[in-house]
Amino acid sequence: MMKKIITLAALTLTIIHCEAQQNKATQTTDEKTNTPMLVGNSFKAEIQQAPYATWFSANHDSYKPNPATIAELKKHLDGISITIFMGTWCEDSQHQVPGFYQVLEQLKFDEKQVSLIIVDRTKTTPDHLEKDKNITNVPTFIFYKNGKELHRIVESPVESLEKDMLKIVSGKPYKHTYEN
């Protein structure tokens, strides 16, 4: 019996390790600034580590979502998933993405419903994860309901991250920063 438990535990750890490796972005060097840069499919824990932790922690901790908006948002999250496109080299991404994660934490939003894709300066990834997504500026937060795109926040919110998110997921009229 003990042998079966150990075998099952080892198999489980192997599967978890393999899944984590598939999601790990590639660290490269930003040719423009000669600084480290991530590119590819990622997850929050990667941008919480050095050298990205400095801007992540400061911007995450300083963002204070509106409690009333958070309470209203919680009513509209059924079937919602989110894809975030960002650049670790991008000041707007460095500012907005940590704040967005603060909103998600306040909502107790299931992070399994969030995809984080980190692009290079040309807004591409080696696996072409941006293909057919029309990513013109980063960060871009794309909201889906049951797999269908509802809308997106592009580069920066119009009002605030949580207020823009509420408009999107509740079906209210919304235009992102670059829409006419």
Description:
α5 links the parallel β3 (80-86) and β4 (114-118). The chain contains six helices and six strands. The chain starts with a helix and ends in a 10-residue tail after the last helix. The protein has a single domain (25-170), classed as Glutaredoxin (3-Layer(aba) Sandwich). The protein is α+β, with helices and mostly antiparallel strands and 180 residues long. Strands 1-2-4-3-5-6 form a six-stranded mixed beta sheet.
Task: Note the topology.
Elements: H1 2-23, E1 26-30, E2 35-42, H2 44-47, H3 53-62, H4 67-73, E3 80-86, H5 91-107, E4 114-118, E5 140-145, E6 148-154, H6 161-170
Parallel strand pairs: 3-4
Antiparallel strand pairs: 1-2, 2-4, 3-5, 5-6
Briefly, what CATH class? Alpha Beta
Number of strands: 6
Strand line-up of the largest beta sheet: 1-2-4-3-5-6
The helical percent reads 25-40%
**What does the average pLDDT come to?**
90
CATH topology: Glutaredoxin
**CATH architecture verdict:** 3-Layer(aba) Sandwich
Summary of the model, kept short:
The chain is α+β, with helices and mostly antiparallel strands and 180 residues long. It has helices spanning 2-23, 44-47, 53-62, 67-73, 91-107, 161-170; strands at 26-30, 35-42, 80-86, 114-118, 140-145, 148-154.
What keywords describe this structure?
180 residues, alpha+beta, Glutaredoxin, 6 helices, 6 strands
